[in-house]
Amino acid sequence: xxxxxxxxxxxxxxxxxxxxxxxxxQAPRALRPVVVLLMVNLALSIIVTxxxxxxxxxxxxFQLDHRHITDPALRQSLRQGYSxxxxxxxxxxxxxxxxxxxxxxxxxxxxxxxxxRVIWLGAVGAVSLIVLxxxxxxVWLHIEQGTxxxxxxxxxxxxxxxxxxxxxxxxxxxxxxxxxxx
Length: 182
What we know:
Strand content: under 5%
Number of helices: 6
Number of domains: 1
Order of helices and strands: HHHHHH
Distance between the termini: 45 Å
Number of strands: 0
Helix content: 55-70%
Largest sheet: none
C-alpha cells in the first residue's frame, strides 16, 4: 500500500531512478521536429550519396550529353572533372554526417551555438540546393535535391518557432557555452 504523503523518486520508463548528475535539462517538445528534420535530411544525403556512387558513370554521361560535347579529348577531360565533382560531393556528405551527430547532441544539451548553426545550415543548404536545380543532373537527382531543399526550409521554419527560440535564448545557464570547453 502506498501512502499519499510518501514522496517517490522520479523513475525512467524502465522503472529505475535516473542517474545521479544527469543534470541535462529536458529539451522542449518543440525541438523534436528540428531533430527529426535534421535526421531526415541526413538520411536523404546518405541515400543520394550511395546512389550517386553507384550511378556516377551514368550521371557523368548525362552531363556530357546534356552539353552536347562530341570532341573525344574534351569529353575525356570533362569526364574526369565531373567525376571529381561527384566524389567531392560524396566526401562532403560524409563530413556532414559526422557534423550532424555532434550538432544534434549539442542541440539536445541546449547549446546556443548549435541553434545558430542549424539556422545557418538550413538557410544556406536550402538556397544551395535550389541553385543546384539549374545544373545538368538527371531528373531523379533534381527531385531529390528539391525534396532536400523543402526539408531544410521546414527545418528553418521549425527552428525559428518561438518555443525553440526561447529554449536557446541568450543569457540562460549553459546556453553560451563554447563548443570545446566543458
